[in-house]
Design brief:
Helices cover about 55% and strands about 10% of the residues. Helix 5 packs across helix 9 and helix 6 crosses helix 8.
Amino acid sequence: MGDRVCVIDDDAASRETLQRLFRSVGVDHATFDTAEAFLQQLPSNGCGCIVADIRLRGMSGLELMEVLQKNKLMIPVVIVSGFATMRTAVRAMRMGALSVLSKPVDEEELWSTVREGLSQYAVASQRLNRRKELQQSFASLTPQEQTVADAVIDGCTNKVIAEKLSVSVRTVEARRHNVLHKTGAQSIPELVKLWLASKDPEEMLDILYSRPPGDIDPQAWDFGDRAAG
């Protein structure tokens, strides 16, 4: 999932033009005439890049980007428009748009930008999946193993940990061995790196989205100050 291009444009001719483009390059795609229709199908449509007109019936392209950001769904977005001003284009880029293209779009430029978006989304997906795997591995530790893991990560020696927990050094060594085995770490430095990777916020991991679309109920969208309807 995540390899589909989603086109959002209320002009039927524009949608058909982009459909022909994406058919010609063999990429999976879906079209929508409103941002609201797109959001209703987002949990299951496998979208990895959005191509949206800036002017739409109902929610605009920029307002769609705001909704995605509020819901921590940072899917790459390409904005297209025949009416975008410099001010609007700058605003879109500051909000994270991959590019702002003028209609009629240069198909080669658009496809190049969309490929970049799909690639970024794929990398982000891999990072998020890895982060989930790490979180699950740390969650599999017993409370006793977790205590030892925390102390080891803090730089404590086996002897210090044993004294703190009132257990033998051999017990600490056994628990540390289990920690390394369950997390897949080959050494203490690697354990620390894995722990940081499982804890770092999205900004530090530089991922493009932080919440799988399938985890979201369309009825629970956070529209901020906008009305959902």
